[in-house]
Amino acid sequence: MSMKRAKEVRRGPKDTGKDDDGFFPKDPARVWEWEKDANGQPDDAFAKYSPTARYAKGALMMHPKFGKGVVTESEQAKVDVLFQDGVKKLAHGLS
Q1: Between β-strands 60-63 and 67-74, what pairing exists: parallel, antiparallel or unpaired?
Q2: CA-based Rg of the chain, rounded to a whole angstrom?
Q3: Residue 66's closest CA among 54, 79, 82?
Q4: Contacts of 15 (CB under 8 A, 6+ apart)
Q5: CB 60 within 8 A of CB 38
Q6: Cα–Cα distance between 34 and 70 in angstroms, integer?
Q7: Where are the domains of the chain?
Q8: What angle do CA 22, 25, 29 make, to 5 degrees?
């Protein structure tokens, strides 16, 4: 014998910041551009890359092989860095 359950009704705040479909819009993801975000910065703004150092999103780094880059994503043990040749995944925070 099965029992029918009533559907759960979810109601958000009565704010006017909603789209027509009732959901709040997400902020668009930032588009990183090497020319604008990394290339135009002074050389002393770049930290030397080390796998033991930790990097936050938006940090500038100088890699010995890939050159100047900007951190676009930061996870527990890896970072995505945008270099002139493209995005590379590097280790960080290793002890």
Answers
A1: antiparallel
A2: 21
A3: 82
A4: none
A5: yes
A6: 7
A7: 36-91
A8: 160
- Nearest 10 degrees: CA dihedral of 86, 90, 49, 62? 0
63, 80 Cβ separation under 8 angstroms = no
Is 3 in a helix, a strand, or coil?
Answer: coil
User: Tell me: the pLDDT tens digits for 6-64?
Assistant: 777 666 665 555 555 567 777 788 888 989 989 889 999 999 999 999 999 999 999 99
Q: Look at the block and give the residue holding tokens 């925070």.
A: 93
Measured distance CA(30)–CA(27) in Å, rounded: 9
Q: How far is CA 40 from CA 9, 15, 76, in A?
A: 51, 41, 28
pTM of the model: 0.70
**35: helix, coil or strand?**
helix
Per-residue burial over 15-29, b = 16 or more CB atoms within 10 Å of its CB, e = otherwise:
eeeeeeeeeeeeeee
